Amino acid sequence: MTDYVDAGEAIPHVQLTNVRGEAPATSTVDYDRIRGARSEPQNWLTYYGTYDGQRYSELDQINKDSIRRLSPAWVFQAGAVGMQSGASTYSFEASPIVIEGVMYVSGPDGRAWAIDAKTGEELWRYKHASPYDVSLCCGNVNRGLAVGHGKVYMYTLNAHIVALDATTGKMVWDTVNGDVRAGESGSVAPLVVKDLVIVGSAGGEFGVRGHLDAFDAETGERRWRCYTVPKPGEPGSETWPDDGEAWQRGGANCWVTPTYDPELELLFQGTGNPAPDFDGDIRPGDNLYTDSTIAVDVNTGEIRWHYQFTPHDLWDYDSTMENVLFDAPDGRKLLAHADKNGYFFVLDRTNGELVRVFPFVDRITWGEITPEGKVTPKIYPDEEGVPVHFWPGPAGGKEWTHMSYNPQTGLMYVPVQEVGATATRRRREFKESIPYWGAGVAVDIEDFYGFVAAIDPLTGEEKWRWNNEYPMCASTLTTAGGLVFQGTPTGEFVALDASTGEKLWSFQCGSGHHSSPTTFEVDGRQFIAVPTGWGGWVEGFLPGLLGAAAGDALFCFALPEQ
Q: Residues of the signal sequence (predicted)?
């Protein structure tokens, strides 16, 4: 007879570390404080820094003159080990939040941390368990957290919205927001508005119906849901087949954080591609509200207006990318959107009226959009088994990574990808949780490049560009110091002159950039924080670097202490 030894009781993994398990309490972060975030540039209170999505900071200690002395202050190792959820690679894609010297950041595979923003010391950690076989389109990733009302909010891979105690990292509530077995998932950074937490769904490549949701920040109870594909009888349903179930599998997911105008009380949400991505015969019509910006009433979840960038999309041109809010010199409220389809749009954000549209990439072959907004497709996969090549590829002229806007220069700084693809239509029967693309796709592994483009959104003029051998796959950040920060796929983190595009400084981080840098100040010292870690949907945006070094480090830079 075998004698068994008592193995003892399981304990939390963090108990076997030096992590203290508690962060200093910060002042209350509520709606009024986030609304006035521009007035406290020492903090980075929300995903884009401010509700308008400009990714601009008034901090100027790090500037054109001092940038040459910028050096690493600390490095945080996320420590990605063991098996990761989903049959895909992971990537460190987050945008760090900083409040009064405490940094809150998420990583792949359901992890979140509170970190001492001055020293890099880990204060607490959280790990959300997700099924290993969860269906993920584009990598095991999470783009960030939201902080408010004493809590840290996270949207998880398996479509849970969770609230953690901001001081301890302990779970306060957990609400399920999607069917993970149907292909729904979560990767978006939540947005706190009033007493609500806003999140959008992911999973359009699996034939799910997209939605944007608002939850009570205190209890986790859902307040409203806005479906982004209308059901029969609703406005926009005439753009889908009258019979069948195409609308139920229509996509239009909201996997990038919206921007928000407090005066209009409107959320500006980009929506994803229709499903199947490349087989349009299954879904005749314009397929609203896919590939659109929708203006959503934050109080009710109702769509007030929409603008569709690529009707009846046949190229996987999601329009989830950010909608940057800015005002014209005459006070007109505008919205800027650089779309996957290679065109830059400026809209009146009060009503969705097109103000201006122009190309921002060098190569566009899929179709043409006139200055009046008329869309004419030219090349698309319309015959079974016949390959069709087009530019931009399905990752777009600009992927989800964000542009920034500097009010001092009046310029948008756009990370541009010049890479094409070949799609061959392959009709497939819909099966739940199985990719529903409608084509085989091969993204070019040569003949690609990238650049940062400085664009005047009022005229459409490109003022300068900084060229790079590889496409730009990370967000830009701009500051009152006259700088633009950009990470490259080969690991270089660079600072550019915001007026001229001249490269003023660089640092090799050892792994490619696919995240969103932020800036903050602690005890009078300005820092620049950037997560690094190449991975995610590399085969979709830059397969030529599929073999590049992975990583999961967060670098924090500052000037030497006096």
A: none
Cα angle 18, 562, 49 (rounded to 5 degrees) comes to 65
Length of the chain: 562
- The CA distance from 511 to 549, in Å, is 6
CA–CA dist 422, 174 (Å, integer): 42
Q: Once rounded to an integer, what is the mean pLDDT over residues 163-167?
A: 97
Assessment of whether the complete model's pTM goes beyond 0.85: yes
Catalytic residues: 316
CB-count exposure of residue 404 (10 Å: 0-12, 13-18, 19+): buried
Residue 208 to residue 323: CA distance in whole angstroms: 24
Find residue 335's DSSP bridge partners.
325, 347
Q: pLDDT for 176-186, tens place per residue?
A: 999 988 899 99
Cα separation values, 70 from 67, 251, 368, 540, Å: 5, 44, 44, 34
**Residues near 147 by beta carbon (within 8 Å), at least 6 away in sequence:** 29, 45, 46, 97, 99, 104, 153, 166, 192
Q: Measured at the alpha carbon of residue 179, what is the angle toward residues 147 and 124, in degrees to the nearest 5? A: 30
Residue environment code for 93-127, b if the CB has 16+ CB neighbours within 10 A, otherwise e = bbbbbbbebbbbbbbbbbbbbbbbbbebebbbbbe
Enumerate the β-bridge partners of residue 440: 424
Phi and psi (nearest 5°) for 53?
75, 15
pLDDT of 541 > 90? The answer is no
Nearest to 549 by CA among 560, 562, 536, 534: 534
Give dist(CA 280, CA 287) in Å, integer.
Answer: 10
Place of tokens 């076989």: 133
